[in-house]
Amino acid sequence: MVNSSDFQKAVDSINKSSNVLITTHTKPDGDACGSAAAMYETLTRLGKKCKLLFPSPVPAWYEFLFTEKPQVIADDTAAEKPKLEGAGEVDLIVVVDTNTYKQLPGIETFLKDNDKPTLVIDHHATGQSIGDVELTDSSAAAAGLIVLDLLKFADWPVTKKIANALFVAVATDTGWFHFSNTNSRVYEACAELITAGASPTSLYRQLYQNFSQERFRLMVSMLSTIEFFLNGRYAAQQLTQKDFEHTGAGHEDTENLIDQCQRVSSVEAAALFVELKDGRIRCSLRSRNTIDVCKIAQQFGGGGHKMAAGTYLNGPLEEAKKQVFEAFKEQFEQLDGK
Questions:
Q1: What is the mean pLDDT of residues 320-327?
Q2: Which of 52, 181, 262, 312 could bond to 70 as cystine, CB 3.0-4.6 Å?
């Protein structure tokens, strides 16, 4: 848990600011988007001038969370030069759901080179401590829980819009409450958010029953590639550039598709390999708790949580798949005591 002293430092930093830049990690998920949107709404209500600046685009199904659509620096699937117009005017930078420079392409250099105070709100155990003030709690299921704690500490109002944003943050990072990180703290926080106006039913429909035809076709393409290894305990799936061209889907459409194979009873861990335009392979990893996929991701320079992690590997695709398979095989052998 974050102590009251750190919460007070965060409040003081915010109170001293007038022009705030809010950002999060590349390929923003529900926790990143929900936490950033909640901070934007809160600080705007406090009279701050706020700017949302993300390393890569917000997935279409999270856009409803934002009053102002975040400006995008660069998509990590393309070699674009970062654009930080107006960023030099800020007097506070708020980074949510990451504490690692590597996850902030295009913003990393700006953070390192400027003397603006940085407030980090994060729940990952693999951080680098990039903030001047840090609200970090690896026991929190989502960064959104820490944002809610900050609002409660400061006695700042949780409006309906903020409640919906934070509910999305918490619900998505707990797999809509079926991951093992779902505990009493999660349910108590969500009860508070519902009381404040969050609507779980409408949010679920918005997020999970709102696929575009292109995204659905991409999922079908992915499922057609599924392979089972190690007596069905490990599942691997892939998507190539041809799959994106054929379906018309974008790279943001891959979010959470990896979870589909976990419907198979034997699957304890899974990987999704996505071929990027620059030839790299983005690898998403999932576990049902028996395997620590964060340790596997860290072997290749990535990170995350025990049950959800990711990394990038060099191509070709088959070589990347082989490397990750060997890492999983080793962990399963250790688990079985071989």
A1: 97
A2: 52
